Amino acid sequence: MIRHFLNPPNWFTSASIFCGLYSIVLSTGVEGEPNHYHAAMMVLFASVFDMLDGRVARITGRGSDFGVQLDSLADVVSFGIAPAVLLYAWGIHSLGVWGLIGSFGFILCGAFRLARFNCGADTESPTNHSEGLTITMAGGMVAAAVMAHAASGRVGVEHPWNVWSLAIVLSLLMVSSIPYRTPKTLRLSRGTMILSALFWGMLLLIAVRYRVSTAFVFLLGSYVISGPVEAIFSRKRVKLIDDQDLSLDDLFGHETTDEVIER
User: Quick one: pLDDT band at residue 234, thresholds 50, 70, 90?
Assistant: First the structure.
């Protein structure tokens, strides 16, 4: 265990766990008044440490199976429990039992999502897409929404059912089979670079014109809806191809491809 404690990648994973714990402390107001803005900020800091631990492991060559399991446990705390407590304390505690159901659903779906990923990590071939919304992005979306709400100067949530709906949507997306793109899918083509420049320019404009937290909502929200939108258009494309194949069958009957070419 001493070797695991002294392994540099595990330091960053441990920092992510601390951020999750401190976010819960700030959400519940144990040290005084609840500070939802800073609690949400700690979730975002946890996401930074979550990105760094894997990179440190690759740079130092100190990655291990222990680190992989520790990272999943850290994700449950920092992006499952902490955002769920934040959701409940910030916006849906007034719903009573339904608020608890919404918070628990978020944690449960996040844990199931991680378990599915861990089960398929060793058996499935590497892919450029993730199955379902990652728990990191779901927790980050919650944090960004809370920060944007707090930065606007609002004291309480006027429509708690909207927050509850957000929790349920994110929960369902985590356990869905909708493919989400990863950075590996990016190709440095001219069109991609132009679209990326326009997107980041718009993000910078939102940050300058409004608030940085609003820019975070736009950034993470764009990624959250990108999966379902791309899945819908992909199905329409497949349906169009199937309809075209069907029309060819109607035209030539059930002839083989060679017979069609000969004709």
Answer: confident
73/132 Cα distance (integer angstroms): 19
Give CA–CA dist 37/112, Å, rounded.
Answer: 28
* Measured torsion, CA atoms of residues 91, 96, 100, 103, in degrees rounded to the nearest 10: -10
From the centroid of its chain, how far is CA 68? 18
- Which structure tokens are listed for 37? 């803005």
101-160 tens-digit pLDDT: 999 999 999 999 999 988 876 555 456 678 889 999 999 999 999 988 888 777 778 889
- How many helical (H) and strand (E) elements, i.e. helices and strands, does the chain have? 11, 2
The CATH number of the domain holding residue 220 is 1.20.120.1760
Q: Which residues does residue 130 pair with via DSSP β-bridges, in sequence order?
A: 180
Return d(Cα 89, Cα 108) in angstroms, integer: 18
Q: How many domains does the chain have?
A: 1
Give the structural domain span for 114: 2-262
Backbone phi and psi for residue 179, each to the nearest 5 degrees, phi listed first: -80, 135
pLDDT band at 97 (very low <50, low <70, confident <90, very high): very high
AA letter at 181:
R
Torsion angle of alpha carbons 84, 87, 88, 93, nearest 10°?
-160
| Residues above pLDDT 70, as percent of the chain | 76
